[in-house]
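Something for you to look into today, if you have time. Could you write out one complete protein record for me, on any chain you like? The space below this message is yours for that.
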Amino acid sequence: MTTGLVTATRAGRTAAARLAEHWADTRHYAVADLARAWRECDEIVCFLAVGAAVRLIAPLLGDKRTDPGVVCVDEAGRFAVAVAGGHAGGANGLAHRVADALGAQPVVTTATDATGTSPLDAIGMPVEGDVAAVTRAMLDGDEVALASDATWPLPPLPVTAAGEGRGAPCVLVTDRLVETPRPAVVVRPPSLVVGVGGSRGVTAEEVLELVAATLDEAGLAAASVARLATADVKAGEPGIVAAARALGVPLVAHPAGRLAEVDVPNPSEVVREAVGTPSVAEAAALADGGDLVVPKRKSAMATAAVARIRPRGRLAIVGLGPGARDLLTPRAVAELRRASHVVGLDQYVAQVRDLLRPGTRVVESGLGAEEERARSAVRLAREGHAVALLGSGDAGVYAMASPALENADDTFDVVGVPGVTAMLAASALLGAPLGHDHCAISLSDLHTPWEAIERRVAAAAEADLVVAFYNPRSRARGWQLPRALEILARRRPAGTPVGVVTDASRPGESVALSTLGDLDVETVTMRSLVIVGSSRSRVVAGRFVTPREYTWQR
């Protein structure tokens, strides 16, 4: 990605130099050379007034799908304004990147960004049709239909009808070549695998012509081709390699032995003798599963076949952090805005509801329904949806990742999004209690027998580990924390520091330091996290510290 930096003044050149220090591939241009920057760069930052930039780029504008994105930065460096190529040219994202680098305010006026609506031309798949008309209908709250040949993990869309509707504007997800007489956007999912074979010396032109003819005769869209596939003995054939490059898709090679195990309708003994498998094109198309939709076709030196692969849903297991919005990671925000379905505890959903895009389906339930939420998230992902399953702190720590993955299979993709755990949030408030070896133990015996919990506490005491107690005490469970502290007290002094943090980073946050001998357990609630130091922990200037005990080399 090459970024052109166009400047006219000393202030502009200074700001451009700041960007160039941190960005990998930048080129500097004077205003008089803007046309050259337009030809040579993928994106352009103009350190000019917006009006001046508009007049300069107006004669250069061609197609928003190929024009570079343009952002303007004012003389004082206050604003980074996306001027042209918002989605297709990447100007909206560029405005945010420039603003982050310069400490400016990003200004993005694209309607979908202003309303938080998923932009159709940045859906993550190729799109065709009247994007403007369908987007306008969505923004106006008009009826918009959604029709799909299969369920793909799309971002949320504010559609109001399923199926192709009654003449309403439509979003159609298909790999078929279709007529769209009304305002429609056709989304091309990556659903087709083209298996190819070829004799030695086959040209890229012949492979491309055969692939195009095969798709066209079957009424299939080239934009839905996810990859070319072939046998490993053909993976280095220049014509096949060049054809994949021309189509802009990866070339996947399979061992002949694997292809020989694939059941195909048109095996050939001649091919088996030549390459070790009775089929190259059909077997390669089917090697990763799916259904054969076009049996092999031949040209003079090439073969091609097409398979349709099944959609894979997407489950993002998202840690929301301890509660404060500024401790919610950018990656978590991105996953929340990408998911068409959000599953979570009702109070966690309320915490992030304002971040969800219009059209997001929310599945929420109350305390005690963890397994039900995990099963719901897995079911939706298995159906092909883009799902975000919410957990507090880090979703993998006493939260939703474990029950979800226990129920998962390999039919969908899983993405883990780490979050700031309660233990880390509490530790930061207390000082550095986790500075050396430590462990976390939940004192809830709802799912774990108390005898097992007690053995773990005893082992931590024996190992002299700092211990963070989750779920330390509730109205119904008042005796477990005192018992755990008693076990620890057998192995460490009564003056060992103990920190109690309640509602870390949330309204009502409280932080208290005590000792193993003096802790008042009545101050501890289910919303607290208790950290008990090791025998080496101490309080320094009012802060709970566990020394690292390293020998520093000079």
